[in-house]
Amino acid sequence: MKSVAVSLLALGVTFGASAQMPKSEPAADPDSDFLEGVVIDPPAEIQPGAPDARGDQALSGLPPEPGSDTNVDFDELEIDIDSNTDWDHEPSPDGADFIGPDLVGLEPGGPGAGTEEGDPTWAGDDSWLATWLDALRVSLKHENSYKFASPKRVVNNRSSVRLEYAKPLTSNLYLRLDTKLNLHWSNDHRARAKDEDLFRELVTREAYLQSSFGDTSFRLGYQILPWGVSEGGAITDEVSPRNSAEFFFISLEESRVGQPMLVTDHFGDSGHWTAFFVPRPGYNKYPDRGSEYDIPGAFDRRAPDDDWDNPGTYEFGARWKRTFGKSDISLMAARLIDNDYLVRQQRFRMFGLTANVAIDNLLLRAEVALKQPRAYFALAAGSSELTIVESDQFDSSFGFDYSPGGRALVYSAEVVWSRVLDWRSDIIGRERDEYSLVGSVSNRFFNDDLTLSLLSIYSEPYTSFQHKFLSSYLIDDNSTIYFELFFPDERDQRSGTWPYRDQKQFVVRYQYQF
Length: 514
Prior knowledge:
It comes from Pseudomarimonas arenosa. There is one protein chain. This protein is mainly beta. Helix content is about 5%, strand content about 45%. The protein contains three helices and 22 strands. It has an 18-stranded antiparallel β-barrel. It has a two-stranded antiparallel sheet with strand order 1-2. The radius of gyration is 24 Å and the shape is globular.
């Protein structure tokens, strides 16, 4: 532990010194979705959007960055489709483009195929195959995590192979597929829970087709639809479910749950309009029974198995977004099924507003939502029987991101407040008002090859702290190593995270991409 303390002290000194370093261009995130943002037949006019947390400017004229998570667990020859996987923050596109001839329907040597060497569609030219393989990216990763609080043990020991394929098939038809095979070795907590020497899990994060006609685009398939601007809570971000199978240790790329969805985007003079329809809703993914994060009896209820032809479970909604210079505002309304099915399958309405206001190197964020109604467990005085009651709920968040002098150094803070409007004293598991304060600082060093971040979350009225240290180092164009430290500090036994008070872990990951 002495060496760990010395290392953390050195990191603190490095952070302070880095504030004097000039900012360099941000490095591409190796975990980002490399073709997100590709537009098929894009609108003629694209307005600049609000800058992100690092001060980089986004393009609101592009369709929302898609990304969906469809988990398919298989054991031997059995395949179980589970539409589970958010990431909480959308990855940034790394600018990869695929520009080339339309090769759909061209067979080697068939009608329409090139007949001269050098023609990329010529049957004997390797460039025909190379054009298609250019759209493929492969990521190999291995991860270990160790719980250093008693009882000490290895928690994660897993490897993965991820294939990403994204390519225009025709002039106005685009395909995206993102699939990943996870291998959980015998001492990984999920393999132990299933009593298997090797637990295999196939996760298809995205599988959809996109087409555009003028200023309107359509996406059909398994997707996620991230809404909202909050980094500390799900305020309006209620469309796509969450993956809570591993508490807050879940990786960014697996933190959202996909579901079958039709999404339409229209870019007009009045703003950016988005509408969605979900014929079969997905639900939050909770810990496997007997796994490291299981709470006996808490996750025994099975997720609803909805029929595709049941209108009572259809989800739909719309959002309007308008940019004003570097700022933007969004209004949204939706009819949803609560992603948290542990109380009951609850249908509710959501009305929300988000705003980003950029002032020089400061970005202000605000988000509010009204949800009618939500379901809660209740226990009347003197009774031993749980009942379910309904109440409207109001959620909000207010925060900022600040980059002094335009440097890579970023300070962020946010206050999250949730209130049960029709409060009843017999509601259990939460109070009328709940608060969270989120603070973070991040910086990049050595030509942006090294990224360091510190994050702390303070919650009331059931006092708890969650601290995270995250780092990544780009060894070369293909290799990245990650080190992460998680330190929960629970102060109140009534807190929902109290059972995880001893989950103090460090994680090491290595990733190779080509």
